[in-house]
Amino acid sequence: MSEKQTYTVVEGGSITTPKGFKAGGLHCGLKKTDRNDLGAILCEVPATAAGVYTTNVFQAAPLKVTRESLVNGTLQALVVNSGNANACTGEQGEADAYEMRAATARQLNVAEENVAVASTGVIGELLKMDAVRSGIAGLPEKLDGGAAGAEEFCQAILTTDLVKKECCVKVSVGGEEVVIAGAAKGSGMIHPNMATMLGFMTTDAAIDGEDLLNLLRAATNVTFNMITVDGDTSTNDMLVAMASGLAGNSKLNRLHPDWDNFAAAFTHVCQSLAKSIARDGEGATKLIEVRVSGAVNDEAAAAIAKTVVGSSLVKSAIFGADANWGRIIAAVGRAGVPVSPERVDISLGAIEVLLQSKPVAFDEEQALVYLQKSDTVLITVKLHDGEGTATAWGCDLTYDYVRINAAYRT
User: Fold this and answer.
1) Domain boundary among 251, 279, 307
2) What is the pLDDT of residues 20-44, one digit of tens each?
3) Which residues carry the site feature described as Cleavage (predicted)?
């Protein structure tokens, strides 16, 4: 990818900013509150599409339906509900997911095989299909090509999230302006192994389908697969990208002269959403960023970064503003990859705490202030073993995480 940033963040942009897309949401009765719990995205033309999914063995019914819809590499609409995961619900749950697809296709006047389905919420409970049917019937009048529709959609996909997650950028492709946008939900059950959330990306780029899938996978590996909140991977996680092709650019593929610029912009959207998920971890007060360099290769660096950011002891120390580097180096040592134990450097922000695996005298008060006052805590690990680098993101572990998850179903 290009080292120079060639894309521009679109302030106030959303999943409806790319040409051809509408979105909306409403409350149909799946949630106990009056918050939106059903949403949809519609493209005015069949869009080139791709998806990646959770690696959890117990995959929810909507994932089977969406995989089936994406066999031909196109989608025109997707429907998503929150408040109920429709996971581990047997044949009835599967039938309900297919009914959601069929009902959405009828209401939006698109081919049934061009509709994706996603669900998020409590596992093991059947959907209230009367509410879902009524909600889907009301979706068409809620769909909007402006910011209002995108806002209603973003609200419809949230569960324990405190804030919506969205990002939008523009980039030049062959002299044409191309827009890439995304919206996601995720706050708990977040751990590497795709997709660690529900995510939806839209773009008006004309792009080859196989290259879109490969780009989605590559971007996921360095963004969504590099975040963790609690070490759990959900049954429902998926990331779906839709490309309308209405920007008027010459079709993108890996040989296109502007491919690297487009890929960098696409990856930026994924990274922004991923960091937003980590920052909004259940009960979290801080984003933790772990940068590893000097590993034997990138894969080793990624394993170490994810182990450190996922350590409950490291996360607890950050919450307590305790500069306990011993927890960090212990995590480095148990990551399961080659490390020279005599030459590791560790820093907290700009404060060096370990050099060549030896403790460094540092100002404890300065470290306390840094850990207490920083919204983002940076942990840097230098291994001096090779050229491998990686960055991972997570959050601190707080009392509120236990409170939220102790009563999730109630």
Assistant:
1) 279
2) 999 999 999 998 888 999 999 999 9
3) 195-196
